[in-house]
Amino acid sequence: MEKKFVPNITTELRKDIVRAPEVISNASGIIIFGKRIKSIIFTTDIAIIRNTNANAVIAVYPFTPHPAITKSIIEAADIPVFSGVGGGLTQGTRASFMSIFAESQGSIGVVLNGPTPLATVKQVCRVVDVPVISTVTSAYTMIDEKIDCGVKIINISAGKKTVETVKYFREKFPELPIIATGGPTDESIMDTIRAGANAITFTPPSNGELFSKKMDHYREEERALYEEKINEASEE
């Protein structure tokens, strides 16, 4: 089949964005409220969230979840947001309240950490009308009862064993939506997709790394402009 031409519209000010690895397009995606999501950027940096072509953002962080953080991210984002609502230190009523806040602020889904007790999972699943996502850290994660309580999607982050963990849960749950970390290379992302992941999370460069590249570019432009002026002066 002939490859279709895809028009690409951008501007000079918006062309420099954080792009999702193109290989992620091979994933099936997960359709949530009519939106197909394949690439999910893992960051809480509002500037990066505002300047990416990823289909969605997963905003989880190693601190107690707070409505002000969720609100700031969702207001800045122009893509769907999966919001972390606790499950580790933040459990029970607080996690369920955070879930209600996240949904009311516009989150397309809420994410619970791996250690979340079953009682908290039940509470959260009862109070929200968006998908509840449970993080899986290894093949030993006991997810069956959480799925029975209402968890709709699992988010697999198993380090070097992510591919085999995805494969294990895909064989166990053939139709369960699976989000998984893709790793640092196109090959590792493709292996994760082949293992059964429907959507892939990727970690962008830090704000400092991105700025460093831009500053290198500016320095090179300045050097070229300086040499041009020197040449013009010598010719005169």
Q: Write down the overall mean pLDDT.
A: 93
Radius of gyration: 21 Å
**Which oligomeric form is depicted?**
single chain
Tell me the β content: 15-25%
Structural class: alpha/beta
How many β-strand runs? 10
**Strand order within the widest beta sheet:** 3-4-5-6-7-8-9-10
pLDDT below 50 for ≥5 consecutive residues: which ranges? none
Largest sheet composition: 8 strands, parallel, barrel
What overall form do the CA principal axes indicate?
elongated
The percent range for helix content is: 40-55%
The ordered string of helix (H) and strand (E) elements is EEEHEHEHEHEHEHEHEH
How would you portray this structure in words?
This protein has 236 residues and is α/β, with parallel strands linked by helices. It is built from 8 helices and 10 strands. The protein has helices at residues 46-50, 67-76, 92-105, 118-127, 144-149, 162-172, 186-195, 207-235; strands at residues 30-32, 35-37, 39-42, 56-59, 81-86, 109-112, 132-136, 153-156, 178-181, 199-202. The protein has an 8-stranded parallel β-barrel, surrounded by 5 helices. Strands 1-2 form a two-stranded antiparallel ribbon. Helix 5 (144-149) links the parallel strand 7 and strand 8. Helix 2 (67-76) packs parallel to helix 3 and helix 6 runs parallel beside helix 7 (186-195). The longest helix has 29 residues, at 207-235. It is elongated.
